[in-house]
Structure formats: structure tokens, C-alpha cells
């Protein structure tokens, strides 16, 4: 698949700047948010840009069959719902849920599939839609498992990236689309949660430290 320069520009992450920070709008959960780093409008604008980049990249490939969008549960659901509507191509949706476990003192471990794909990946162009790239360990192991099913291609589109060392970065072209580069803070909203709360916030904000314990920081 050829990639135009303009599509590459759209796919590169936009760095969140401190001057963007704002007080949360009034709401029942706003008291838990230290500040908003991405507004609903900023998210929506960026998603349209990502959709345009994906459309251009997969235009030729889509002539032989729909792009398979693999949505990671649960955090990426809000992002994916808006992103696929910004892609002007035939798209099929499937969902996967994975959990990593093992010794907390090591960076290795296993991945347990909680909900597997219903689709056959063999000879398909697939796009994993992820909410946030942090350590990327679970995502990396998930990709290894899915690669064994022999897709034609498999790339990742992530809304947020904390720019930490991550195995996915060692694979050229794998992390193909990124919405925003963000600070290393505990963020919630727009699908991202703490203890299953805050997913329904339309913006992305930093959670106040007193709401969570440091050991649980994402």
C-alpha cells in the first residue's frame, strides 16, 4: 500500500501543549478531574484527520475486500465508533479483549484472551484500534498472536501515546496512526476509565491524584 506525504502528515501524532489545558465543564464527575487536556472538539477534529489518512492508505487494498477494524475492549470503543465513521471505505468491525498477567516484577508475562475475534484474519488487511499506548506490552503480545493467523497486513491506530519505550515501536510501520502525544499522566474520559468510571466523559482529562493510589497509575 503506497502512502502519500499528506497522509503521512495526518497520521503523525499531534503533541498536546500545556496551554491547551482547561478546567473541566460542569458535571457530576468534573470534581474528580484536575484539568482537561483534550476537548471534545479537538478529539473530533483529529479523528477526521486520522480517518482521511486511513482512507488514503487503504484505498487500493479495499478494492479487494473490506478493511477489518479490530477494536480492543473496552477502552477503545468510543474512539473506534467515531473513527470508523470517518473512514470512507468498506469496513468490517470485530472486537477483542485481552488481559496480561504474570509477575509484576517482570516485564514479561502472558496474554489471556477474554474475547476472541469472530473473523478469520487469513489474507485480510487489519487495523487494530487502541485507546492508548503506554508500555505496550499487552498490545505487543496480542499482535504476535494475531500475526500467527497470517493477515495480509496488520497495523495499529491509537488515539493517545505516552511516548514510553514500547515493543510496538521496534516494528517499522506497525504503529501507523496516532492521534495525540500526551504527557505521562493518569488520563480518563472518552473511553478511558479508572475503576470502570469516567468512560462516558466526552473529553480527556487528568484524574486528580487523590482519586487513585500511585500504584494504579496508568
Describe the overall structure.
The protein has helices at 5-11, 40-58, 77-85, 137-147; strands at residues 14-15, 33-38, 67-72, 91-101, 110-115, 125-133, 153-161, 175-181, 187-188, 204-207. With 218 residues, the protein is an alpha/beta fold. The chain has one domain (5-216): Rossmann fold, CATH 3.40.50. The strands form two sheets. A seven-stranded mixed β-sheet has the order 1-8-7-6-3-4-5. Helix 1 (5-11) packs antiparallel against helix 2 (40-58) and helix 2 packs across helix 3. The longest helix has 19 residues, at 40-58. 34% of the residues are buried. Residues 1-7 and 102-108 have low confidence and may be disordered.
In short:
The chain is of the alpha/beta class and 218 residues long. It has helices at 5-11, 40-58, 77-85, 137-147, and strands at 14-15, 33-38, 67-72, 91-101, 110-115, 125-133, 153-161, 175-181, 187-188, 204-207.
Gross CATH architecture: 3-Layer(aba) Sandwich
Work out the oligomeric state of the chains in this entry. single chain
- Name the shape in a single word: globular
What is the CATH class?
Alpha Beta
Tell me the β content.
Answer: 25-35%
For the largest beta-sheet, the strand count, sense and barrel status come to: 7 strands, mixed
Helical residue percent band:
10-25%
CA distance, first residue to last residue: 34 Å
Instruction: Give me the CATH fold name.
Output: Rossmann fold
Count of DSSP-assigned helices: 4
Count the strands? 10
What structural category characterises the helix and strand content?
alpha/beta
**Parts with pLDDT < 50 across at least 5 consecutive residues:** 1-7, 102-108
Q: How do the helices and strands follow one another from N- to C-terminus?
A: HEEHEHEEEHEEEE
Amino acid at each position: 500500500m503506497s502512502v502519500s506525504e499528506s497522509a503521512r502528515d495526518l497520521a503523525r501524532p499531534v503533541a498536546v501543549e500545556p496551554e491547551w489545558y482547561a478546567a473541566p465543564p460542569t458535571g457530576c464527575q468534573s470534581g474528580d478531574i484536575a484539568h482537561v487536556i483534550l476537548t471534545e472538539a479537538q478529539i473530533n477534529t483529529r479523528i477526521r484527520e486520522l480517518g482521511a489518512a486511513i482512507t488514503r492508505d487503504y484505498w487500493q487494498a479495499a478494492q479487494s475486500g473490506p478493511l477489518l477494524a479490530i477494536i480492543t475492549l473496552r477502552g477503545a470503543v468510543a474512539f473506534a465508533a467515531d473513527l470508523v465513521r470517518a473512514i470512507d471505505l468498506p469496513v468490517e468491525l470485530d472486537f477483542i479483549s485481552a488481559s496480561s498477567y504474570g509477575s509484576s516484577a517482570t516485564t514479561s508475562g502472558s496474554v489471556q484472551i477474554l474475547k476472541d475475534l469472530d473473523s478469520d484474519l487469513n489474507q485480510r488487511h487489519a487495523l487494530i484500534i487502541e485507546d492508548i499506548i503506554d508500555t505496550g506490552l499487552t498490545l505487543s503480545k496480542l499482535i504476535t498472536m494475531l500475526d500467527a493467523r497470517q493477515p495480509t497486513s496488520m497495523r495499529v491506530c491509537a488515539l493517545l501515546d505516552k511516548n514510553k519505550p514500547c515493543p510496538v515501536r521496534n516494528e517499522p510501520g506497525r504503529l501507523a496512526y496516532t492521534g495525540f502525544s500526551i504527557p505521562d499522566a493518569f488520563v480518563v474520559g472518552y473511553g478511558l476509565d479508572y475503576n470502570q468510571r469516567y468512560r462516558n466523559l466526552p473529553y480527556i482529562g487528568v484524574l486528580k491524584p487523590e482519586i487513585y493510589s500511585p500504584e494504579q497509575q496508568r
